[in-house]
C-alpha cells in the first residue's frame, strides 16, 4: 500500500486580504501530478479542507472540483476527515454517496471505529473532536483531557484491528512534543490545546496528522504532520512545504516537497536598499518587510508597494525605538511651525505649498499674539 | 413511468420565529410512505430544497438525511433542481457522486440539456435561472425576458428529444396565468417576475413546476405546480397541500393530499369568544387572529397566547377603526388624570395603585397650578 499524506488545504483562505485560490489551484495540480507519477493507491487528507465553517461559494466550487478530479476523474481512493476549521455537517453533505466511489470522508466520531480497508491496510479516520463528544460517546465524565480521550478512542479502535493488516490512523490534533509556530493554526475549541501523547499512538503503524502546518513540528518516524501544501502566514515563511509518500510494506516514508507559486519573503533593510533591490525580487510574491530607517518616511507603505505590491506586514523597529526615545523630547523643543510642517508632510506625503505656508505662519503668529 | 412530483420543501424555514423542522420531518415521512405505497419509479423535487442560500447546520443535516433515506435506503431514483432560495454551488456539493446512485441533482443551465432517461421518459432538469445566464449561454443579448429565454431553452432541449420517449420538464419559475398569493414565495432575482407562457412549454408531456406554493395557482392538465408540502405562511392557510402522482403511459395525474402536522387557522371573534372557544382548538397549531373588540385590551397578545400559544399574526381592524375615528376627539376632551390612568393600564395591564394614584393626582394639580 502506497499513499500520499497531505493535510490543511484551507481552501478559501486569504492572506492579509489577498486571495490564495489561484495558488491553491496550482498546488493542487502539483499534488495530483505527484499522485499520478508515484502511482499511489490512495490519497489521505488529514483535516482542514476548508478554511472556514461557512466557506464562500467559490471555495465550495473549488474544493468540490478538486475532490471530483482526484476521485471521479483520476480514480484515486480518497480518505479525508474534518478538521477544526471545517463544519462537520456542512463538509459531510453527500458523504454517504461518496463512499460508493471509494471517497471516504469521515466527520463523526462514531464513524472512526469502522475502519476503511484498502489492500493490506486498515485506515481509521478520526475527525477533529471536542472532549465532550468523547465523554458522551463513552458515557464517561472522567475523560478530562484530549490524551485520556485519545487513549479510550485508540483502545476502541484496537478491538477492530485485524492482525495481519497494517493500521493507519488519520487524525487532526495537537500531538505532545510538537511545536506550534504559525498563527494560521488557530484553535477554535477551548481545551483543544492539551496534547495527545505519542505513546498513546504507539499501536499504529503510521499516524497521518493534520493541524500543525509545519512538517518539522514533530520528529517521529511513524507519527507525522504533513503540514499545509503552502505557506498560510508570515510565521510559516521559512518552512518547506510538501507532503509524505508512505509505503506500508516494507515501511518507508519519503518527503515530497511542493514548489510555492507565490512565496513569502522576509526582507530587512533601509527604504533605499529595498527600493534598489526590488528589481531582483519576484513582483507577485508576498513580503514581510522590516524597515531599518530611523527617520519618518511619509506614506511609507504605499511607496513601498510601488516596489513590492503584495506586502503583508511592515515592521519599523528602528523607527519605533527612535520615536520612543526621542520624539517626546524633540516635540517639546520644536517650534510650532516645524511641528505643523512635519505633521503635514508625514500624513500627506507632500510639503506645504508657499500659500499654505504663508497662511500657517500668519495663523500661528495670531495664536501666539492672542496668548 | 410513475413518479411523484413535489417541490418547495424549504428545509430550515421558520414561521414567525417558530421552527418548522419537526413538521417538515413528519411531512417527509408522509411523502416517503406515499412513494412506497404507490411504488413510484422516481421522485421529482422541483426546487427550493432549502429555505436559504446558507442553511444552518441543522437544516443541512436534516435535508441530507431525507435525501439519503429516499435514495440510498429506499432506493428511489431522485430528480431534483435548485430553486431561487437555494445556493446552486452549495446545494450541488457532491452532485457528481450522487448520479452514480440514481440521484440526479441539477443546479446549472448547462446540465439542463442533457436529459436523464428513466424507463420510457426523458427528464429535463432545469434549475432556477437568471436571464443573464441564458444570454451568456446562447451568447445572445437580445434575450430580454424569461419567456424568450425559455423559448431558446426549450428549442435547445427539443434537439435531444427521442421521439418514442415521453418528455418531462422539471423547472422552477413563474408560469403565465398563475396566481401568486403567498408571501413566502419571495423572489430574489430582479426581473424574475416576468412569466413564462404555457405555450412555450407545449412540447412537453408534463411540466413539473416549483416556485408557487399553491397547487391551484395554475390550471393546466399537463403543466402543474405541486405546491409546498406544508403551509409556510398565513397567506397559505386555506390551501390544501400535497403532491402530484404522475403516470406517463397512459397519461394520468392524481392529487395526493398531505396531512398538516400543525395547521394554520384564521380565527375571528371577540377576546371573550376566542377565550371561550380555545378549549376546542388544537393548542399546538398556528393562529392568525382577527380581534373584533373595539375597546383597548391591555397586554392583549400575551393574554391571547395563554389560550393560543403559537399566534403568528394578530389583527385589530375594529379597534384600529374606532381609534382612527374617535381617539383624537376623545383624547382632546379627556381629563389629564383619565389619560394617565388609561395609558398606564393599556401599557402595563394593571391599574394604578392607591399610592400611585395619589402621587399622580398631586403632580397633575401642581402642573395645572403652575400654568
CATH class of the largest domain in chain A: Alpha Beta
Q: What is the subunit organization of this protein?
A: homodimer
- Largest sheet features of chain A: 6 strands, mixed
CATH architecture of the largest domain in chain A: 4-Layer Sandwich
Number of helices of chain A: 11
Write a concise keyword list for the protein shown above.
homodimer, Purple Acid Phosphatase, chain A, domain 2, alpha/beta, 5-stranded mixed beta sheet, 371 residues
Question: If you had to describe this structure to a student in words, what would you say it looks like?
Answer:
- Chains A, B: One of its GO terms (biological process) is DNA replication.
- 2 copies of one chain form a homodimer.
- Chain A has a 6-stranded mixed sheet with strand order 6-5-4-1-12-13, with helices on one face. The first copy, chain A, has a 5-stranded mixed sheet with strand order 7-8-9-10-11, with no helix packed on it.
- Chain A folds into 2 domains: 2-257, Purple Acid Phosphatase, chain A, domain 2, CATH 3.60.21; 264-370, no CATH class.
- The first copy, chain A, has 11 helices and 16 strands.
- Chain A has 371 residues and is of the alpha/beta class.
- Chain A has helices at 21-37, 57-73, 88-91, 95-98, 131-138, 146-158, 271-277, 300-305, 317-333, 336-348, 354-370, and strands at 2-6, 14-15, 18-19, 42-45, 78-81, 103-106, 116-118, 121-125, 166-172, 206-210, 223-225, 242-248, 251-257, 264-269, 286-291, 311-315.
- The first copy, chain A, is 33% helix and 20% strand.
- Chain A binds chain B through residues 54, 57-58, 60-61, 64, 68, 71-72, 87, 89-90, 92-98, 100-101, 103, and chain B through 54, 57-58, 60-61, 64, 68, 71-72, 87, 89-90, 92-98, 100-101, 103.
